[in-house]
Each structure stands twice: as structure tokens, then as C-alpha cells.
């Protein structure tokens, strides 16, 4: 198709987005309010992409108006609703650039975080988006601590942390199964040190007991068992570690001066030096 024909087709399509009526005037001749209300109608009738495009037109044609300010945040919401996460994030970030202290700034930041969070893949895949989500969620919590979105952001932050810990556990279990004990220990260590509040910590400590016993490092195994017994005594992981250690005539008491011993002194004994 000839380039001019393509441009003409796109213009026709955009005009149709303005309300589904080919008799409507071109967007350039319509007022900011008219475009904004048309965009709201598109959103209400289940056409969020069309809505986002019309909100963008308000911003483009009337950049210094109050309608443009409102359209910017609504564009972000519309694209997010359509699962067009990149466009949603771009609109929300523009809003934050222009109005970082506005009453809707917290919502814009939350939309940035959601645009990453809603794309988090299962633990078998790359977790770059999980890290991006954590950073954006942290900004929501720290920059807007009193907003209506802080509680939800904190919950999602904790879930994202749990997700990352699950990724480490998945890899660690694989190495443990293959008897690559040192590699497994490194993964379980990350969970214990970096994600201690997640639901994976108890299992990570038990897997450390297994891996250290397999390497003949009984002091490290005992210390992992001691931490497990202190923080997660009611779990099956503690019962399994107890059986493993006592079966070899060992106690669940800290021993030696490993990284686990330092955690035991700091977290359980409260000794930081």
C-alpha cells in the first residue's frame, strides 16, 4: 500500500475512535472537553485502547489545560485496563514527571508498579520484571506512605519477594537433586539471608541441613537446624531436620563460626558484634 494511503487509513481509524461516528469532525477541531468525554465513553463501553488514544489526543492538543492533566492519568488507566502495560507505564511516568506532588501522583506510581507486577512470570522464567516491580512498589510505599495504595503495594511487594525466593528455591532443589551441594547451598543461603520473611525460609533451612550433612559439614547443619527450631518449630521442615540430625547423633544447637552462626547470634541472640 502507498505510504499516503496508509496515513489516510490511520487518520480515518482515529476519527472512528472518537465515538464510532464517521460524521464527527477531526480531533484537531474538537474541544478538550469534547475529546475527554468521548474518551470516557469509549472506556465505559469497553474500548480502553480507543479511550487511551483519545485521552492522548487531549494531552497532545491541549497540553497546558486542566483537561490534559486529567487525561494523562486516565490514559495510563485505560492502557493498563487494556493490558497495554508499556503504554500505561509511559503515561503514568509522564504524569509523575509533570505532577509528582499531585493528589493522583500516588495512583500514577502505583500504576507504574502494576504495569510490571502484572507481567511477573512463573518461577521457571526470567525474573527481571519481578525486580522492576519490587523497585516500583517500594517507591509507591516510600514516596506516598499515607496514600490509599500503600497497603496494596506492601502486599504485592511481599508477594513479589516470595516469588523471588521461590525462584531461588526452585534452582536450589535442582542442584540438590543433582548432588551439586555447594551450588544448592548458595541458593538456599540467598533465601535465608535476603528473603527471611517469606514462606520459603523454613524449607531453605531444612535443605541447608540436608546439603551440609551430605558434605559432612555437621556444625553448619546443626546451626541451620537451631535457627529452624527457633523460628519454625511447628513446621514439618523442623521435624524432618530434627530426624536427620538426631539420627546422626547430632543436636540442633549452633556450632562453629559460619555465616549461619552469625545469623543465629544476630537474629536469635541479638548480638550484632
Q: Based on Cα principal axes, name the global outline.
A: elongated
What percentage of residues falls in helices of 4 or more residues?
over 70%
Quote the distance from N terminus to C terminus: 74 Å
Largest sheet features: none
- Strand percentage: under 5%
Low-confidence stretches: 1-22
Give the overall pLDDT as a whole number.
88
Give the total of beta strands: 0
If helices are DSSP runs of H or I spanning 4 or more residues, what is the number of helices? 13
Could you give the order of the helices and strands? HHHHHHHHHHHHH
Pfam family, one: YfiO
Main location: membrane
Signal peptide: 1-18
Protein name: Outer membrane protein assembly factor BamD
Describe what this molecule looks like in 3D.
The protein contains 13 helices and no strands. Among the domains are: 1-82, no CATH class; 179-273, no CATH class. The protein has helices spanning 3-17, 32-44, 48-61, 66-81, 85-98, 105-117, 128-143, 150-177, 181-194, 201-214, 218-231, 236-247, 259-268. With 273 residues, the protein is mostly helical.
